Amino acid sequence: HVDEEVTLCGWIQYLRQDLFVILRDFSGLVQILIPQDESKSELKNAFLGLTVESVIMVKGRVRRRPEGQENKKMSTGEIEVCAESMEVLNTCRKLPFEIKEFVKKSEALRMQYRYLDLRSPRMQYNLRLRSQMVMKMREYLCNLHGFVDVETPTLFKRTPGGAKEFVVPSGDPGKFYSLPQSPQQFKQLLMVAGIDRYFQLARCYRDEGSKPDRQPEFTQVDIEISFVDQAGVMSLIEGLVHYSWPEDKGQINVPFPSMTYEEAMRDYGVDKPDTRFGMKVTTDDCSRVCALCCQWKLNMGRWRKWMIIAAFALCVVQEVSVVPVRADGSLKSPLSRLLSDTAKQQLLQMAQANAGDLIFITAGPRENVRPLLGKLRLQCAELLESYGVPVRDPSVFHFLWVVDFPLFLPKEDNPEMLEAAHHPFTAPVPEDAHLLYTQPRKVRGQHYDLVLNGCEVGGGSIRIHSPPCPFFSVLLVIRDVIAFPKSFRGHDLMSHAPDFVSEEDLKPYHISVVWPSADIEGQQDNSM
Amino acid sequence: HVDEEVTLCGWIQYLRQDLFVILRDFSGLVQILIPQDESKSELKNAFLGLTVESVIMVKGRVRRRPEGQENKKMSTGEIEVCAESMEVLNTCRKLPFEIKEFVKKSEALRMQYRYLDLRSPRMQYNLRLRSQMVMKMREYLCNLHGFVDVETPTLFKRTPGGAKEFVVPSGDPGKFYSLPQSPQQFKQLLMVAGIDRYFQLARCYRDEGSKPDRQPEFTQVDIEISFVDQAGVMSLIEGLVHYSWPEDKGQINVPFPSMTYEEAMRDYGVDKPDTRFGMKVTTDDCSRVCALCCQWKLNMGRWRKWMIIAAFALCVVQEVSVVPVRADGSLKSPLSRLLSDTAKQQLLQMAQANAGDLIFITAGPRENVRPLLGKLRLQCAELLESYGVPVRDPSVFHFLWVVDFPLFLPKEDNPEMLEAAHHPFTAPVPEDAHLLYTQPRKVRGQHYDLVLNGCEVGGGSIRIHSPPCPFFSVLLVIRDVIAFPKSFRGHDLMSHAPDFVSEEDLKPYHISVVWPSADIEGQQDNSM
């Protein structure tokens, strides 16, 4: 753009030596040269009167910077703009914090002045990246795959079961709307209605307080398809992620690897394994002993001792033994005296442990001890990272399908009984259907989760389409953290009529219904 | 596709003569040939056992229909599919109504069985058209014009003034969220935050009951831009409408014509004129007489008399005279005897009336009588159309900008006082700014409405950017029917902290806050 006349609007980032102004907008920074001639002293004085973060409009001419004055760290470092006129759109008084990446500010201050916090390059990048990714997803679904974007109502009826829902009082006494946990019921009805490929960037609500990965309202990519199978949905979603993946995050490969629920629980003690690092849970096939080998690998020097102490601390309330392996391969543990040499060798072999490693050993029912070791695995990774040992590369993205979930799991409060592992309309794997009434614990469901670096980012299932659910479709939901509503009521769902809510339902909100007093007032008027 | 093996899934539209099944999906209909050989009697019987609207999957081979059996009304009328196998995905029992365009059903029945109603080609077309138009709008804004799609929260604080808002009780006793009337405050803060081009397909809430053009929740294309002027926004929006306009609705031309508020009120008695037809309001420059000439044009034959009676009925409670013009040009009215021949000539000329026309005459302050005649103009159009006279072509789309709105209007309850015509942060037209304190009624605002066939489909304004509103931006909102929130509170808006709501605020909902009784129970325990 050298020699071009330009008009720039933006925020003042720096004022330098009465000579330069650095102007910022979302695309970056540019240097403005303040004129120094006597004839333009008015303009110069206007510039010198400016404060940082004021908003100005500058007209001027682009020129190459004098040789030796280029700034290679700046994408516009080879040019500058000679100001010819300037309008102050708004002046900025003192701000609660400077808009510079290196200025540390508390979370509370950032939230209080959210509109200033969003000026930072990092927040600008995040908001713009989200917008672009969502746009790409829409292109993929709408333009390339014939999906219909349908907006479903949010003032709805209560769904029994599932998460706690927000209620919204209607003007009708004693009647309330409910904000939906997900468009679950609407999208199933859309399948019945012949919208064979539905999607929505859907706002969902759960009245369950805020957690780092869960807010009262959140958005999910909500998909439902008729006439497909599990492989079809999985390849559609792989295509979706691949198509919308941001260029600056590196290439991702499709298809994603797949792991059964059984393998995930066996090797990682969790149904959403972080496969960026090893340290798998191992099991002795003959006994009920499970082990986790934390491979220090590096010579930890002076930190090693502290890390072992920290590892002991992790296990102190749990029935897990921590066994450091000495440089000569011997075990540094009271256990060492109790075990025969053969047993020690077996243990080292089972845990695939080497000199310098730390073995976590425990025994008990596998369904209990594996999840315990799975948690320890992640805690060890955090511990190592806190001492500067790289374990999980934050720049890589390991997508993983987890499939073949059990259709039923023992009830939490009564493990003798079974309940649907996900929702009660997940279809069984056809080959297992004959076991439904004889060995229900062995029946796998056509449910699949998408896991990224140990986070469940999506999940779905093939639904039962034989009566009483009169359709054949597939659900896939992608969001930061996922959960499924637990029930389904298939009638009169598209209407807006609010439901009656009992006093009992309102207790958590500390409100009660007041019957309108108009009639009583009317009687008073008559009596007077 | 002739001779290809195909798999089709869909709903059974018709069963014909034990020979054919017509299968429907969203893309249309196709004829399936039921095999008649003895060897395939099982398949034939399966077909014959089907009911209309059952869902099936058919595999078969496409073939050209025998000569003479083509159906030119059907887009697949030249082919049929010879069924080789068929799977019943679901059988349909008797439905409350048939899924055929010609079957009349009540609005209530359609709403009750919304998922069946949506199977009709018309509803499928509407849902799919909306999805496609919205997608095109996003492409235009995001991909072609650098807008950032930002999702703003819906669990928010109350905005004083404006429409009545829904409240949402939080778990915190006595504290409530409010569902926003529009993302107004968020988007203004996004401008402050440096998101210079924001848009959102925004869900908005107003607790004002349902009307045909207003529902408790609705969606608007919500836009805000920094560093632009009125002409810039108008051309952006013209581009948006042009880009996203559906092909099957014919070409629309940009730029759209523009009309000042004053012209609209003068000629049409309304700020959102339907410019598809004439019949303008006319004014005698010397007197306070205004007239509307309803040009019958056609020979109405036997209906003419009834229409005149209906026109009289329209005016009976209003101080409007209806004056039919006879074939010889004379006036058929008691007024005729009161007016001189010159006056009659002047009236005919003013109203541009011809033989056979109907003139509506009234007198009074123009700001009162013009809107009255404006309403009569639309009622006449309806009346003529109800008798089969084409007035407004439903297949044409007349977009129109209405500009130069007054910045202030007389208060409804106290016409001596002024209030902001739109919202209080609309900037004045710069040339009028000097009149702000001397002749405020003459000051025009930088506000613009987009009108389509007499409906306000969008509107926006240049905002005041000098303190106390520290930004420079532009609002444009497009939705079926528009209104603006009346106030703006510029602090602490991005946080989720619910606001305190008084008992007074809750009265319309017939609820009251109950203080938690846990403390009192604790005391009782102690005393026992």
UniProtKB/TrEMBL annotation, chains A, B:
It holds the Pfam family tRNA_anti-codon. Keywords: Aminoacyl-tRNA synthetase, ATP-binding, Ligase, Nucleotide-binding, Protein biosynthesis. The gene is LOC107720851. GO terms for cellular component: mitochondrion. Signal peptide: none annotated. Residues 127-521 form the Aminoacyl-transfer RNA synthetases class-II family profile domain. One of its GO terms (molecular function) is aspartate-tRNA ligase activity. Belongs to the class-II aminoacyl-tRNA synthetase family. Type 1 subfamily. One of its GO terms (biological process) is aspartyl-tRNA aminoacylation. This is Aspartate--tRNA ligase, mitochondrial-like. PANTHER family: ASPARTATE--TRNA LIGASE, MITOCHONDRIAL (PTHR22594:SF5), ASPARTYL/LYSYL-TRNA SYNTHETASE (PTHR22594). InterPro entries: Aa-tRNA-synt_II, aa-tRNA-synth_II, aa-tRNA-synth_II/BPL/LPL, Asp-tRNA-ligase_1_N, Asp/Asn-tRNA-synth_IIb, GAD-like_sf, NA-bd_OB-fold, NA-bd_OB_tRNA. It comes from the Eukaryota.
